[in-house]
Amino acid sequence: MEERARQADNLTGIARCRLNFALAKAYDDLGRYDEAFACLREANALKRERIVYDESRMLGSFDQIRKIFDQRLLAREQSGDSSSLPVFIVGMPRSGTTLIEQVLASHPAVYGAGELADINALVDNLPGIGGNAFRYPEDAATLTGDQLRALGQAYVERQRQRAPNAQRATDKMPANFLFLGLIHLALPNACIIHVCRDPRDTCLSCYSKLFAAEQNFTYELGELGRYYRKYAELMAHWRDVLPEGRVLEISYEDVVADLEASARRIVDHCGLAWHPNCIAFHEARRPVRTASASQVRQPIYRTSEGRWRSYQEHLGPLFAALGDLVGHDTASLSATNERRALADRSDSEAIL
Q1: When comparing pLDDT for 318 and 340, which is higher?
Q2: How many CA atoms lie less than 13 Å away from 166 in the CB half-sphere?
Q3: What are the residue boundaries of the structural domains of the chain, listed by start?
Q4: Average pLDDT for residues 11-31, to the nearest whole number?
Q5: How many alpha carbons fall within 13 Å on the CB side of residue 103?
Q6: Fold observed for domain 62-351
Q7: pTM of the prediction?
Q8: What is the mean predicted confidence (pLDDT) over 292-319?
Q9: Do 173 and 192 form a contact (C-beta atoms < 8 A)?
């Protein structure tokens, strides 16, 4: 790869982009972090100049969602489909959603459907006002009870076709966090799991990937950090306006620290009896079609935690965009590390 990189003038822009992402991964594996980041910087710049990303429009849509889906709208009498089949696993890309789905889909009563575009597609087909195309979120408040029920039924029918005998069927499209208010109205008995991870690790992992499905906010550190902030604001809004306990919050770091305790919380939230398969998730043979496919074939490991520290001198624009989210998370991370240190010390004493 280094030899090819020295002949980069003979490569197309997208070929150089892919080569740099691949080299960055190799350098990271070797602990050559400065060289890895130099490749990441070039790879992301090459990708960014080839896409169209309207940051102002994107971030403005988050504010619109918060404005439209207020407590009054979400307190409407429940009229959606009553099925308890759907399980939505949401969060930022690279936050651990694939891991959580793999844990849950290892349960014999659960079908893991992967990342589905169903909600987005069904919303696009909703009727708009005056014969116009439906606008999300602006037109959401105009939906009738019958329309919400039909939306929920259409989603459940799609999942039931995939999983005719399952008690639960997962959908781990991370960006469904944009639709949680609508999901609550259309599918009031659906389970919702929000997976969160240290924002620095989450964003660095996003920045390290050339996504198969476009994640256009991930190729510039400032844009990535600003997107994360809006995501965090929206999730805080959902916590405020949705009924208490409606969304189960799962920390990636907590899953790594104590897999069984976290898995039991997840299974319980989905109304299922505990099954030991859930902590042997890496043995499951179901197909996984995300950037985390290789990771979820392995037992739990901790090498992804705190990865940002190896790159911190290069991440200034990201930290500036994240602002106080970095400081807040640092305290949380320190507390987690302290708990782990005590646990490790206890294990050592027991062995001695």
Answers
A1: 318
A2: 26
A3: 1-50, 62-351
A4: 96
A5: 28
A6: Rossmann fold (3.40.50)
A7: 0.87
A8: 77
A9: no
